[in-house]
Amino acid sequence: MEQLDFGGEWGWSKLDPADASELRQQLVDFEQVELWKLRKANWVKFISTTEMDHKAGDRLKEIGKDDDGLWQLHLHSHKWRVWGFLEKACFYFLWWDPKHSVATGKCRNRKPI
User: Fold this and answer.
1) Nearest to 57 by CA among 3, 98, 100, 8
2) Which residue among 50, 65, 81, 91 is least packed, with the fewest CB closer than 10 Å?
3) Cα end-to-end distance, the chain, whole Å
4) Is 77 helix (H, G, I), strand (E, B) or coil?
5) 75 contact partners, CB below 8 Å, separation of at least 6
6) Are 2 and 87 in contact (CB under 8 A)?
């Protein structure tokens, strides 16, 4: 949680309190799945900044996180996504993307977990 961005278009300050409980439950469910299984099923995948909306790249520069890209965690509900950094087996949250607007490419190979 140390990487959370509260500002900008995808800041966690935009999390609707009505969605917080459902989001929490989904994240708890994902905590119990090994990371390699999430990656294999395409629930977690790396998206380069070149595939992101230009505003996402601008925001990364603004907050000093000018990396090659971010990892996207696809959630079960709606178009919800959580974006962050992956270091070894740890996923560090950065952005909350309830409308799937950071990058809108389609994942064609997602399998059930």
Assistant:
1) 8
2) 50
3) 24
4) coil
5) 23, 26, 27, 30, 81, 82
6) no
Q: Structural domain of residue 42, as residue ranges?
A: 12-97
| Position 28, amino acid | V
- For 25-75, how does the pLDDT look when each residue is reduced to its tens digit (9 = 90+)? 989 988 889 888 998 998 999 999 989 999 999 999 999 997 899 999 998
Is residue 1 in a domain? no
Residue 63 class from Cβ within 10 Å (0-12 exposed, 13-18 middle, 19+ buried)? middle
**Can you tell me the distance from the alpha carbon of 95 to that of 83, in angstroms, rounded to the nearest whole number?**
5
Domain-embedded: residue 7: no
Whether the full predicted model's pTM is greater than 0.90, yes or no, is no
Dist. CA 42–CA 47, nearest whole Å: 12
* Torsional sign, CA 6, 8, 11, 15: positive
Sheet with 44-48: strands ordered across: 44-48, 69-74, 81-87, 90-97
